[in-house]
Every structure is written in structure tokens, then in C-alpha cells.
Amino acid sequence: MTKLAGSKPLVLLLEDEALIALNLQDELQDAGYEVAGPFTACAAALEWLQTVTPAMAILDAALTDGSCREIALELTRREVPFLIYSGYQEDQHLLAEFHHVTWIEKPAPCAVLVQACQQLLVSGL
Amino acid sequence: MQHVLMGGLSGKWRVVGNKMRPVWTEDDRLAALRSYRVLDTPPEPEFDDLVQLAARACRAPIALISLIDERRQWFKAEVGLGVRETPLDRSICLSAMLQPGLTIVPDLTEDPRFAHNPLVTEQPHLRFYAGAVLKTPNGVPLGALCVLDCVPRDLAEDQAFILQTLSRQVMSQLELRRAVAERDEKLEASHRIEQRQTLLVRELHHRVKNTLATVQALVGATGRSSGSFDEFYRSFSNRIVSLAKTHNLLTEDYWQTAPLRGIALTELKPFAEGRQPRFMLIGPPVELSADLAVPVGMALHELTTNAICHGALSVPGGHVEVRWSVDEGEGVRKLHLEWRERGGPPVGEPQHQGFGTTLLQRVLPMQCKAEVEVQYDPEGLRFRMQAPLIEQRLVPTY
Fold first, then answer.
1. Does A110 or B178 have the greater pLDDT score?
2. B366 touches chain A (CB under 8 A)
3. From the list A21, A27, A107, which residue is nearest B366 (CB)?
4. In terms of CA atoms, which chain B residue is nearest residue A37?
5. Which of A12, A40, B290, B326 gives the lowest tally of CB atoms within 10 Å of its CB?
6. What is the spatial distance between Cα B286 and Cα B240, in angstroms, rounded to a whole number?
7. Which chain A residues contact residue B213 at CB under 8 A?
8. B13-185, superfamily in CATH?
9. Can you name the CATH fold of B226-388?
């Protein structure tokens, strides 16, 4: 995996399974990202978002306190690109309004996630 | 034709011939009435037709299907009276219901039971009553099909016959109605079960994939802390086995909880067989929901593995004490869990942070909101955690 040059992009990580979150955090850090979180609940992530705007975000669809919808709306409003990493299939109506968003089904190799992050940073989608 | 009222609604026994026979109680009767699910339902043509027929056949201005409820008589169908119910003290059908067959009162003003009834003394000045009891197939009376008139009179034999026949038709309609209602309820229930099953399958699918993602993370984390492939393979396999055992305990229980003692035992059981006890489990019965049982099971697995490799279970004289308790403060039940090793080789700070340490110090706080303390006491490793017990049910109650 190629490392990113220059200052480290800040990635917001929202994932309520601690093992998955911590492993992803390690992988992202290895790939040259700085990780905010991992947050296990939307409320904590929303609070953090009040003061910081990340370069991008990885969101689990369903968190301990509900769906990631509110976070996704806030990120969209601020034009922060994000992807959804979820055990749910994409075609479910869970987050119908974010149909254009990259949706990666669990489990996926970390390399795929890291690559998707790089694409998000470049294209901003 | 009877004109005499026998007893009130509380009568549980009745003399038939010279024998006492048990009959319905008022509670049975009301339960039977409710089972027809007819009270307070809108008018239906099937019943309206029957009262029309009764009125025509008996040449009476008023006809009613009267059902005797706890405190009122309620009319499933009526013609000529203009109300849907009256209080029970005005009910003539209440008396008729307690008579077998047909009750005829040619002049209500001359019958002491009804002479002071406001429906008789005031508008509409009722004078004549004929009612046929409505009885369930078990013989429990529900009310009467009756005709009323404002002049004293009697019924012709044909009319009496028709009124009784129609009363049985009313019961047939009620039976049919009940069968349909029961069928609808069953359909509704099976529809609910179907929906619930779809939801469960979806949830199961989601959980399987989450579990696979957890396993994948476990591969990554184990890989980071293993020096060789053999070490990786052994540690990883053991972690999967431990995870599977916790899930066994969870699925054994309908509520998807696992007993803390059982979780600890699955790890420490191999040390129960020697002559000398190598561990003690001290604490009240506590059920852990999946959110807590899985991380706690993994923590106990890492602690046990560490004790076998480096700690108290690595030498014959060492032993482990696992203590727990639950306390309640500010409406939250908290689990306190302590793992303490004694009699092992002297303990020092670990050289590098392995997966076990990561699990205890990072995963537990994140997953279970646990406060965690690991002490490398020279006498033996000491681990303490306290975490709120998650009371939320994953499974709906039936």
C-alpha cells in the first residue's frame, strides 16, 4: 500500500464494533491517515463535528444509538466525502437518500477500504 | 309459557327436576358474550334483517336483538325503539334470558317485575313483551330476540314459533361472525409472525456479516502481534474457538444472554480436573447480554491464555481467582469483575503491547464503556473492570 505524501488527511471513523474499528484505525494509520475516533455512537461523532471538519469519513450504517443518517446529512452539508461500511446490503432502504454514496459491504479487505478512501480524497465523491 | 323469574344473575346452581346442576357463572357468561366480539360493533344487515322479520311476523312495532352486558343491555339490531342500549335496570330481556325458550308478558303494567319500569310508565309506554332467549351451543344465555308493543296483547302460535326460530338464526349468525373474527385474528397473527421472521432473517444476515468482519479484524490484530505463522495460527484458532463457545452460551438462552460463570468456566475448565483447584469463581449469578458477553468472554480468554503462558497457570502451584459483583447506582446496574493471579512466577511489565493488552485496554472501554485497570503486581497479574450491564433485550417478548 502506498503511503500518502505530505500532511496526514483526517478521517472520521464511526463504527460500533470495537475490534473492527481498532483494526481499521491501525490499517488507516499505517496507510498514512490520521484517525478521528473511532466513535461508537452518532451523538459523540456529532459533538466532535461541531469543532472539527475531517477530510473524509467512514461510517457504519447502524450504530449503538441508531442509523448514521444524521451524520451523513451533516457531512453532505459540509461537502465532506464519506463512504459507508456496513453489514447491511446496499439495496436496503436504510439510507435511501444516500444512494450515490460508496457503499462497502462487510466484511471487506482493509486494502479495499483504504483504496476507497484514497479515491474519495481524489474525486471528492 | 313461563312468566316466573328464577333467581338473579349470580345463581351458579339451578334445580332441575330434583337435582342440583352446575350451570354457568356470570363471569362465564360475560366471557362467552365477549368471545363473539360483537358488542359495540356497527349495525350489520344480517342482524337488521332478522329483527325486521321478527317485527313483521309478530306484527309488532318494536323488535330487538338484546345482548346482556355487565351493566347494560346492548342492541345488535333494533327496529322501532331508536336507541342502541339501555341500563340493565330497564331491561325486560334480562328476565327473559333467564327463562328457557320463550317469555311472554301480555301486559307489562300488570306484572310486578315490570310495572314500574320507566319504559312502561313513561315513553314509549310499553305494554306487551315476547322474547326468545339467545343461547350459546353450551347453553349459556347471552340475551334475547324480542318484540314489543304499546298495547296489551298475545302472540299467535305461528308467531311464537317464528320468533323462536329467528332467535336460533340470530345465534347462527353470531357463531358465524365469531368464526370469521377468529379466522381473521389467526391470519393477522400469522402475518405478524411472517413479518417478524423476515426481520429476524435480515438481522441474522447482518449479524453474520458483522461477525465475519470481527473475525477479519481478529486476523489483522492477531497478525500484528504474532512473530511466526505457527504462533498466529494457534492464537487465532484459539480465539475463534473461545468466541464460538460464548456464542453457544448465548444461543442456548432464548433471551440471548450468557451466564458470567459459564463464560469463565469455558476458559478455565481444563484446570478444574486436577486434584488441587487452580481457580475459584466467586460471584452471584449474572446474565450478560451479547454486547457484554462477547468482549468479556474474549477478555477472559486472553487472561487465561496469558496465565497459561506466563502467569499463575504456567506453574503447578499457581492459581487464579475470579470475583465479580453487581451494584446499582443512579438506576444503572454495574458489573465489577476482578481477575487475580497468585503463586505464579514474578510478574513484570510486558515488553510489547500484544493483542491481549489491546483487548483489555482498548476494546473493553470502547465496546462496553468499561473502566479497566491492569496491574502488573509482582505477586501476580491483577485485572479489574467495571461496566454498565446492558439490560436492553435483543429478542422481542412473545
1. B178
2. yes
3. A21
4. B366
5. B326
6. 24
7. 17, 20, 87, 106-107
8. GAF domain (3.30.450.40)
9. Heat Shock Protein 90 (3.30.565)
Which backbone phi and psi does B277 adopt, to 5 degrees?
-65, 135
Pairwise CB contact (< 8 Å): A17 & B212: no
Question: Could you report the per-residue pLDDT of B356-388, keeping only the tens digit for each?
Answer: 888 888 888 888 888 999 888 888 899 999 999
The verdict on A17 touching B (C-beta cutoff 8 Å) is yes
Interface of A with B in 36-75 (CB under 8 A): 38, 40, 62
Q: A23–B221: do the CB atoms touch at under 8 Å?
A: yes
Collect all residues with Cβ–Cβ distance below 8 Å to B121 and sequence separation of at least 6.
B115
| pLDDT tens digits, B63-108 | 999 999 999 999 999 999 999 999 988 888 888 888 888 999 999 9
Q: CA of A105: which chain B residue's CA is closest?
A: B209
> Which residue type does B94 have?
L
Q: At A79, is the secondary structure helix, strand, or coil?
A: coil
Q: Compute, in degrees rounded to 10, the torsion defined by CA atoms B271, B274, B278, B281.
A: 70
Residue A2's pLDDT is what?
45
Which positions ≥6 away from A39 have C-beta within 8 Å? A12, A13, A14, A15, A45, A48
pLDDT at A23: 86
Q: How many CB atoms lie within 10 A of CB B168?
A: 13
What are the sequence ranges of the domains in chain A? 40-91
Residue-level pLDDT at B243: 87
Rounded to two decimals, the ipTM of the complex is 0.78
Q: Which residue in the set B206, B208, B217 is minimally distant from A19, CB to CB? A: B217
If you count them, how many residues does chain B have? 398
For residues B295 and B284, what is the distance between their CA atoms, to the nearest angstrom? 20
Q: Do B23 and B9 contact (CB within 8 A), yes or no? A: no
Task: Return d(Cα B12, Cα B21) in angstroms, integer.
Answer: 9
Rounded Cα distance between B228 and A36, Å, is 32
- Nine-digit cell string for B388: 454498565
Q: Which residues of B touch A62 (CB under 8 A)?
A: 206
Taking contacts as CB-CB distances below 8 angstroms, the residues of chain B near A63 are: none
